[in-house]
Amino acid sequence: MAFEEKIKELLDKRVEVKLGGGQKRIDTQHAKGKLTARERLALLLDEGSFEEFDMFVTHRCTNFDMQKQSFLGDGVVTGYGTIDGRLVYVFAHDFTVYAGSLSETMSLKICKIMDQAMKVGAPVIGLNDSGGARIQEGCNSLAGFAEIFERNILASGVIPQISAIFGPCAGGSVYSPALTDFIMMSKENSYMFLTGPKVVKTVTGEDVTEDKLGGAIVHSTKSGVAHFVGDTEQDVLNMIRRLMSYIPSNNFEEAPYVPTNDPIDRLEDSLNTIIPESPNTPYDVKEIIHSIVDDGEFMEVHAKWATNLVVGFARFNGMSVGIVANQPCSMAGVLDINSSRKGARFVRFCDAFNIPIVTLVDVPGFLPGTGQEYGGVIVHGAKFLFAYGEATVPKVTVTLRKSYGGAHLVMSCKQLRGDINYAWPTAQIAVMGASGATEVLYGRQLKEITDPEERAKFMAEKETEYNNQFANPYNAAKYGYIDDVIEPRNTRFRVIRALQALSTKKDSNPPKKHTNIPL
Predict the structure, then answer these.
(1) Of these residues, 407, 471, 476, 498, which one is catalytic?
(2) Residue 432 has what pLDDT?
(3) What is the Cα–Cα distance from 29 to 95, expressed in whole angstroms?
(4) DSSP secondary structure of 453-519
(5) Is the same domain home to 357 and 399?
(6) 288, HSE (Cβ side, Cα atoms, 13 Å)
(7) Are both 340 and 304 inside the same structural domain?
């Protein structure tokens, strides 16, 4: 074969590989409102940056006459590229080839880029659109899944791992995304479940659609499996690019610094009056977050799940931080099972990747009731406490209003190695609120007062007495548990100065194989 013919053969193969399962199947993908694997990668990565691996790989299966048909690339596009100039490794399932179902060779392709990402310290981003295991390959496909899972596990806390779901993700396919740091789903066409509607109907008799069983809305509001949801695939890909701007490439690096013109000493006068006079009146803690961070920009994680706790990424003077805040306008900001899981997971991610944590506290306690106790709120709350106590990154805490009992301890208190703990003058740090405390402290006297008016007067007097003594930040400050009581409008400046002072912080935990967090 002449040299020119060899070049033509190469170019023809490159054209063939880019067609995946063929133009007809590409048209079907588009008719469903879905992009192809290559179109997704083109939108995710910087233009012209993608370098592909293994485009000439084909499957090796001969069962069920599979050897009669094969496609170059075999159902997944893999390689590396850049996002805002930063190296990332990527894989994207190609649904036009055997519905993106996982084969042995697909697994080898994915594992190759995961291994290389670990060697060079770069994030891995997976774009999932797969029918699950390739049934014709039997245990080889299952083994391929397990090879990927093992790499997800070993990469955890070493390099960031991000999963986007753009179609079906069922059975064994769901576990790789579940092992990654963040899951993003498109509102249309994406779903995740271990067993599909047909199996559910057969086993339980329950009729349910794919969307109701495992769609994006379900997983972003009910299960908490999805961290982000986008209206379109383009929205999700933009979210990935935005998320990357807040996180480092690996656990030895710092997150990117983003210069800002937002003054360090900008005062926010509205904060001096944002806390309502009544301690039981709600307000939106997100207003505080937006008012103190750089340019008001906040990327919330799990925005629609466990809304009594707000977590997400922002910047202070160009430095990326993780923010954890109780939300008084949702369930009064109490902690419960789901918010504890949400907070613990986020804190541990920030700690793993050197992202300082700023905590805004307004928490009346843990949600009471048999539903919570039977669901193991003790253990779930302990996860959150454990995460803060284990974290060695800089931790700055600002108590805004209530900080009661066990919930006070969980929310990055001084004894959990909170580095700098501030409080607003409106802070109330105590074992419990005035009403409950009065009933406990004066229970015997209250039993002896039979007149309702006299009883109410006695309660009011004792509550006022309790509030004067404990419902302020100065009692905790007296013992050094609060480093300073600050003017609310000056919060941005004080937090930035604290983070600057802590930028060279060094802390460590005792040597061990690993911790045994209460799971």
Answers:
(1) 407
(2) 80
(3) 8
(4) HHHHHHHHHHHHHHHHHHSSSHHHHHTTSSSEE--GGGHHHHHHHHHHHTTT--------S------
(5) yes
(6) 31
(7) yes
Q: Which of 172, 214, 343, 381 is the catalytic position?
A: 172
* Residue 149: both structure tokens together: 């899972």
The residue annotated as part of the active site, out of 196, 318, 375, 406, is 406
Q: Please identify which of the residues 79, 132, 171, 214 carries the catalytic annotation.
A: 171
Q: Decide if 365 is catalytic.
A: no
Is 460 one of the catalytic residues?
no
pLDDT in tens, 203-258: 999 999 999 999 999 999 999 999 999 999 999 999 999 999 999 999 999 999 99
Is 375 a residue of the active site? no
162-210, pLDDT tens digit by residue? 999 999 898 888 999 999 999 999 998 999 999 889 999 999 999 999 9
Q: What is the pLDDT of residues 345-402, one digit of tens each?
A: 999 999 999 999 999 999 999 999 999 999 999 999 999 999 999 999 999 999 999 9
Distance CA 341, CA 500 (A): 29
For helices 452-470 and 434-441, give the axis angle rounded to 10 degrees: 110
Q: Do residue 322 and residue 439 come from a single domain?
A: no
78 in helix, strand or coil? strand
172 catalytic residue (yes or no): yes
Please tell me the total count of domains within the chain: 3
361 & 228 share domain:
no
From residue 426, alpha-carbon distances to 61, 166, 276, 429 in Å are: 68, 46, 9, 10
Per the structure, the complete domain to which residue 188 belongs is given by: 3-244
Q: Where are the beta strands (DSSP E) in 278-318?
A: 298-301, 309-316
Distance CA 19, CA 29 (A): 12
Q: Are residues 208 and 163 in the same domain?
A: yes
Could you give the dihedral angle defined by the CA atoms of residues 485, 490, 491 and 495, in that order, rounded to the nearest 10 degrees? -90
